[in-house]
Amino acid sequence: MQEMILCKLGEVVLKGLNRHSFEMKLMSNIRRRTQKFGKFKIYSRQSTIYVEPVGECDLDGAFAACKQVFGIIAVTRAVPCEKTKEAILETAKTYLGDVLRSTRSFKVESKRSDKTFPLGSIQLSQWVGGYLHEAFPHLQVDVHNPEFTVYLEVREDAAYVHAPAEPAAGGLPLGMGGSAVSLLSGGIDSPVASYMMAKRGVVLEMLHFASPPYTSQAAREKVLQLARELTPWCGRLTVHIVPFTEIQEEIRRCCPEDHFTLIMRRFMMRLADRMAKEFGCHALVTGECLGQVASQTMQALAVSQDVTDLPVLRPLIGMDKEEIVRIARHIGTFDTSILPYEDCCTVFTPRHPKTKPHVEDVREMEQALDVEGLVEKAWAAREAVKVRY
Ligand code: ATP
Ligand code: MG
């Protein structure tokens, strides 16, 4: 009995003419994510991608990995068998025997995409259900609220027997949504924002600003750890670390204190824009959320995005902190995010930050700075660190 994994396609099935390229991308993403668990034959038929072990494999590992691949809405392990009702029954008995013995009530649900199969799906469910009941007489049949459901699928190439499918990552295959620069701090929000854009198929280049000696080596490690924790979702990542100390010191020296954070954020955006152009990315991603802090009012957001012509994607813009925290826990970044290390935004914070700034005023204040020189110098001193899971 050769167990395999069936991955059910999510929104990919809506994609009409693009569908083929979506499926190809998804299969190559699955191949990349499962390769360390053994050799698999991966192919697609009827809105399902089959992941079939070839020889010795760690199927548990591959199954867990498939659950984190965007574009897949549900996954299940299944055993294929010959397309006869007897073979299907025997497979259900042996493959699902252990669960059926420890369950009180059950039902059988069948799907028949091969219309040449002699029984209709209801007939097949009744026939297999009847014999399973005979083989496991303690079981109650309960079609409305069963403790366990046996699934039978009669497809073109074979019949498949499986337990209920488990929910998977959803979204669109990584690589189908273009690429973007994601601004990653050490906080709770930006890893969640990165995850959410990756879920829409966006490949990310990570950008982090560090301000040594105000920010420590531990703070830097924390950010790299967050990036590492994102890789099961986002794929391998490169974190570009840009030194930000000089820019911050210059702003402090030359600009009014109440505009400090805003001007600093404009430098972040300029550097992100610089990086996007160099890497061929088409958008910037931040963890900003309306009203969360002084630099996240509408006026402040307008002022900070004034320096870039790229779309600034802010997937958390309308979310409450609780919802963001829930996602952070789900994706596995929360515990790292709450480690108490300083971020460059937390050094030199103004006592009374401007919440309704005017872009003309800010441009005027920046006249005191060598904006281009500072940007070029910081960009030239960047460092790229690759992370993988
Ligand atoms: P987070 O929890 O993601 O740190 P936050 O609520 O603390 O967000 P801010 O510190 O104002 O908000 O930062 C807003 C966004 O700016 C962050 O979500 C992130 O995208 C970006 N950002 C902030 N600090 C940095 C940094 N040091 N390096 C890169 N991006 C940063
Ligand atoms: Mg922050």
Mean pLDDT metric: 95
Give the strand content. Answer: 15-25%
Tally of helical segments: 14
Relative helix content:
25-40%
> Over all CA atoms, what is the radius of gyration?
26 Å
* Overall spatial form: elongated
Taking the sheet with the most strands, its summary is:
9 strands, mixed
Helix-strand string: EHEEHEHHEHEEEEEHEHEHHEHEHHHHE
What's the end-to-end separation, in Å? 32 Å
Q: Low-confidence stretches at least 5 residues in length (pLDDT < 50)?
A: none
| Class per helix and strand makeup | alpha/beta
Bound molecules: adenosine-5'-triphosphate, magnesium ion
Give a count of the beta strands, DSSP E runs of length 2 or more. Answer: 15
Structural overview:
Helix 6 (189-199) packs across helix 11 (321-331). The chain has helices at 19-34, 59-66, 85-95, 97-101, 121-135, 189-199, 217-234, 245-254, 260-279, 298-305, 321-331, 334-337, 359-365, 371-380, and strands at residues 4-9, 38-45, 48-57, 72-81, 105-112, 140-141, 148-154, 159-162, 166-170, 179-183, 203-210, 237-243, 284-285, 312-313, 383-387. Helix 10 links the parallel strand 13 (284-285) and strand 14 (312-313). The radius of gyration is 26 Å and the shape is elongated. The strands form two sheets. Strands 1, 2, 3, 4, 5, 6, 7, 8 and 9 form a nine-stranded mixed beta sheet that branches. Strands 14-13-10-11-12-15 form a six-stranded mixed beta sheet. The protein is built from 14 helices and 15 strands. The model has no long low-confidence stretch (mean pLDDT 95). The chain starts with a strand and ends with a strand. Residues 183-185, 187-190, 207-209, 268, 286-288, 292-293, 295, 343-345 line the site of adenosine-5'-triphosphate (ATP). The site of adenosine-5'-triphosphate has 20 residues, from helix 6 and strand 11.
